[in-house]
Amino acid sequence: MAARTLRPLILICDDELPLRELVKAVLGDRYRYVEAEDVEQAQEVLKESKPEAIVLDVMLPGKSGLEFLSELRAKRRNKEIPVVVVSAWQSADDQRTALSAGADAFVGKPFDPKDLASVIEALIAA
Amino acid sequence: MIAVSALGAAAIGATLALFFVANARLKSANTASARSATVSAAAFDVRAAVVSIDVALQQVVEEYNSKNLAQWRHASRSWEAPAAALERAASASNDQQERRAHALRSEIRSYIDDYGEPVVGIAKVSPAAVRSSVAHTEGTLRLDQIVTDTDSVARNSAVIAADRSAAAGRLADQATIAGIVALVLTPVLLILLGLWLARVVADPLRQTVTAASEVAAGNFDVRLNEGRRDEFGELARVFNTMTESLAVSRSELIERADSLERSERHKSELISMVSHEVRTPLASVLGFTRLLLERDLPEEDRRRYLGIVDAEATRLAALVSDFLDARLIEEGRFSLRREPFDLRSLVREQAEVTLGHDENHELELELPDEPLQIDGDRARLAQVVGNVLSNAVKYSPEGGTITVGAAEDQGHARVWIADEGTGIPPEHRGQLFQPFYRGDAAAAGIPGTGLGLAVSRRIVEAHEGRIGFDPLDRGTCFWFDLPLEAAAANGRR
Predict the structure, then answer these.
(1) Three-state secondary structure of B353-402
(2) What is the pTM of this model?
């Protein structure tokens, strides 16, 4: 364990500052974080670094989170990064749309902190 | 239809009439023939009587004695009955025959009176003198004339009877021909009538049945030919009117169903939008509360998280009250707190609140140097400017310049907010100010309740103002007009 000097990097893409804070608080200091308020910023982040997982909101100003996800999955680079979609739109239809766009997991808002933590852990371990 | 039926009936009637006439003529010819026989018989009797007179006269001339004289007296009287009978019989034929028979009677009487009696008188005194040839010849001539005339009466009668009989025969022949023609013509006419009935009745009936089936199948565009001037023309007109009103009712029903469907869709979009808007701050409140309860956090983090919970709960409360407020205003249940103020300051304030921290959009303020004094509810009008501004931001996600301006315009203060955004598709322009109407916004993932513009219109109209928008080459320019304070004061006086 001590050999692991670098903690995994997680990209949090959400336009709501409180939500980004919540994700960081839930996952704690086992991870490093990089934040984006919209798709454009998220794309900038991906140019410079390769996060181990992405926590993605759906309703973002400008391009939606799902559009970003579809584009990510269509590219060669970074297509393997696990993505958790976190959205207040959480009907069965919304979940299906998110999964078919390429999401590895779906967490509805509001969520139980333990659920989000275990989903992220599972995805990074895999 | 009536014309053809009448033609058939007339043909048959004419044939029957011809038969009746021919029959009557034949009867009349029979009567004439019988009369001619009577006349002939009477003429024969007259002739016999005349011969008896002649014989009796010759005997008196041969030998004047009482026996022969008595014979003569008898003969010179016994002709009258057959002559009268002849005259009666002849008068039944025609006037000419009657005249002839009458003349015959005079001739006979004249023969007896002017020849017979003098000859008898002379024979009494000088029998030799009456045997002279002159007297004899005179008697023979007169007698021949009487006999000829008698025969002529009988012959004429026969000729008349023959003529009548021939005419009746000809007519009977014509009637027979007409009957044959009628026999041939009647079935032909019946067939023509059938064909005509089929064309006149069956064809339009079939067309009506076809059209009615089409209507039953839901095609309301079918129309029957109204050109006919009979009952079918009337049926066609009534049918077409019925079909037209059915089509109108159906399109009204479809329109109503569409509008209900639209309003249902708006409502369900609104519900999901509200639940989304509520869930986002709720996620922070619940998430941080759970963390605070479950984890042993440093005091610094605890305070920060509690601050976020407080802020998000406050936002939640504001959201709910905003929504309720919007509903109240939209339903017209609000009152204005009017006060005189300068519209420029309100526009500047709102522009800075909304766009001050927006790095995505450029703000361009166009305000006049002179104040725009109006009498209105400052908070409500701030809400209007805020709504329109936040729309300008939401609907220009790519950024660009947002121009906010105000100016005096013909006794009004006009405020405008122009963006360089996606613009409003023509099909949504008519319903923009309808409550809950959001066009394609829900599909595009743009948040909102669809109440902002509806509420804004209510507020502007409550200030006796107008609100509208003009599509631009790129983006949209929303504007509203409010009466300036002086004009508003004048209006109230």
Answers:
(1) HHHCCCCCEEEEEECCCCCCEEEECHHHHHHHHHHHHHHHHHCCCCCEEE
(2) 0.49
| Preferred mutation among A19, A20, A21, A22 to probe B, highest tally of B CBs within 10 A | A22
H-helix or E-strand spanning residue B158: helix B133-197
Q: CB distance B283–A88 less than 8 Å?
A: yes
Determine the Cα angle at A42 with ends A36 and A45, to 5°.
100
pLDDT of residue A67: 92
Of the two residues B325 and B478, the one the predictor is more confident about is: B478
d(CA B489, CA B374): 10
Nearest to A112 among B290, B360, B397 (CB): B290
Whether a cis peptide bond, with omega within 30° of 0, leads into B471 is: no
Tokens of B196: 């005509």
User: What is the identity of the amino acid at B300?
Assistant: E
Task: Say yes or no: ipTM exceeds 0.90.
Answer: no
Which chain B residues are closer than 8 Å to A41 by Cβ? none
d(CA B47, CA B59): 18
Q: Using CA atoms in the order B484, B485, B487, B490, what is the torsion angle rounded to 10 degrees?
A: 170
CB B427 within 8 A of CB B252: no
Q: DSSP class of residue A80?
A: T
Residue B413 near residue B460 (C-beta atoms within 8 A): no
> Looking at the predicted structure, is the pLDDT value of residue B488 above 70?
no
- Is pLDDT at A5 greater than 80 in this prediction? no
Q: Residue A2 has which token pair?
A: 């001590």
CA distance B321 to chain A (A): 21
